[in-house]
Amino acid sequence: MRVRPVSLVSVLFGLSLVAASTVWADEKPVVPHQTLQGTVVEKAGSPAVRVPNGTTYQLNENRALRHGHDMPKIGDEVTVVIDENNMVLEVHPPNTKGAHRFVTGEIVSMGILQREIRLKTPEGEKTFPLEKQEMTSSIKDGALVRAEVNEAGSIIDLHPVK
Length: 162
Prior knowledge:
Distance between the termini: 45 Å
CATH superfamily of the largest domain: Nucleic acid-binding proteins
């Protein structure tokens, strides 16, 4: 059987692309959160924040209340924290700033129905309320994670530690 050099090169190139895409998928970098200034506007009958570049982010009144903030009014200037998926993590009223902390630990259990997570940390086991259920969909019990905890004590972001 005779192998043509062009065919062999094509196969090797194809395999290298598959390998590269696998590495990229496994090593997804964590994009830092954006903190933006904006103005509360009405969009489709609901409050949203419009930032200087024209992007508008929907607000959630329940999330504001869980963070211990009143829902901002139309026209208010606010600081909005946007996650790596362009979703609003938090909105701070004027003249306030979030005091977030990070906790690293192993997941002991996730109570999805109770919207909570229990982590084994160097200080012992701790249970935290989860702000968003969807952030846990690909993370399993036993995984080592880095959690961002807001000033209300809720986990607002969660990433596996590699």
